[in-house]
Design goal:
Largest sheet: 7 strands, parallel
Bound molecules: nicotinamide-adenine-dinucleotide
Structural class: alpha/beta
Number of strands: 13
Length: 325
């Protein structure tokens, strides 16, 4: 049972997942402090919490160690979601990607260690690198491409975050859960930084071509953001999950070509589906991943969690929202 007045910091709270998480925790009775630099997030995402007595927003950078230490000081829990995210952004801003994801996480983990706060660290399925295994298990090897390709900087920075979190756990006794989040989507996600489903939905709603990268046979599993948030909350309430790395995601696997077809059908769109070479879609040196499907046994065993919202419902919700650019 969560104490009603537990003070909680969410970094990246004005972002897509962070804003849904903030709503869920405030609804649970928590006092939530939100930190965000509004680089990819925006205040519109937090409209529903504006003026709420148990919600406070602070604009700032997670790399600002003094600020983060001050915010974490009175918190029992920290959900660290702030990061440079999105294939397009990672390719365009490789320095910022590495600096925010590594130095920002170092700052949050140091402050949480000092304050003896529990931490949820948002990692990513990208850390599985070039894996083409049918299913990705938490104990699999991580196999990145070369450092001459900036696209691997994101995966590498998040893997380093995991190591740093687990190092604080073993050296300093930090109570931390590492969640490897697989593709999460739903209302409020922006297509601007390369996220596939909002991009498809927006194109379908404007009768523009849906651009599939490569042959479209690469597969993904999409989880609704409300399911992802439920899984994150359950993990943080489960003592056995601390010091563990846990996959979070859906197991409903779909090829990107099929995803485009489903979007066209559900949006009742006349849009054509076209294929572009992957390199043309982003820039030279980008490579797509062949297959992403989480093994969710560990998540289920720890928390009993299973995703509740199927893909067609997620697509319908995004079509309804009108998807954002
Ligand atoms: N959405 C997904 O499918 C997915 C998959 C795997 C992992 N994740 C992880 O989940 C987390 C949230 O991702 P999201 O999809 O909500 O993306 P998002 O871009 O909407 O959220 C990231 C938030 O962090 C903020 N931010 C960036 N740099 C910052 C800085 N220096 N200081 C303070 N705030 C900063 C942004 O403004 C934004 O609000 C990220 O850590 C991401 O790596 C997301």
């Amino acid at each position: 049972m969560v104490p009603q007045d537990m003070k909680t910091l969410i970094t990246g709270a004005a972002g897509f997942i962070g804003s849904h998480l903030a709503e869920a925790l405030v609804a649970e009775g928590r006092e939530v402090l939100a930190l965000d630099d509004l680089s990819t997030g925006n205040m519109e995402n937090l409209r529903g919490l504006n003026g709420h007595e148990r919600f406070r927003f602070v604009e700032g950078d997670v790399r600002d160690r003094a600020l983060v230490a001050t915010l974490v000081r009175d918190c029992a829990e920290v959900y660290h979601l702030a990061a440079a995210v999105g294939a397009a952004l990672v390719m365009q801003q490789p320095v910022r990607t590495l600096e925010v994801n590594v130095a920002g996480t170092a700052s949050v983990l140091a402050a949480a260690t000092q304050a003896e706060a529990r931490v949820f660290l948002a990692s990513t399925s990208e850390v599985y690198g070039r894996s083409s295994a049918a299913v990705q298990h938490e104990e699999d090897d991580l196999g990145f491409g070369p450092s001459t390709r900036p696209r691997w900087g994101y995966a590498c920075s998040k893997a380093l975050d995991e190591w740093l979190a687990l190092a604080h756990a073993s050296e300093d006794g930090l109570q931390v859960v590492v969640g490897r989040i697989f593709n999460t989507t739903g209302p409020r996600q922006s297509g601007r930084y390369g996220m596939v489903l909002p991009r498809f939905v927006q194109a379908a709603l404007h009768a523009e071509p849906l651009v599939v990268h490569g042959d479209g046979l690469q597969t993904r599993c999409f989880s609704h953001v409300k399911d992802t948030v439920r899984a994150i909350c359950r993990l943080m309430q489960t003592p056995a999950a601390y010091r563990q790395v846990v996959n979070i995601g859906s197991t409903e696997e779909v090829t990107i070509r099929e995803l485009a077809e489903r979007v066209v059908r559900i949006a009742k769109s006349s849009s054509p589906i076209v294929h572009w070479p992957v390199e043309q879609a982003f820039s030279e040196g980008y490579e797509d991943l062949p297959r992403r499907r989480p093994c969710t046994k560990k998540l289920r065993a720890l928390t009993g969690f299973t995703p509740a919202i199927p893909l067609d419902e997620i697509i319908a919700a995004l079509c309804h929202e009108g998807a954002r650019g």
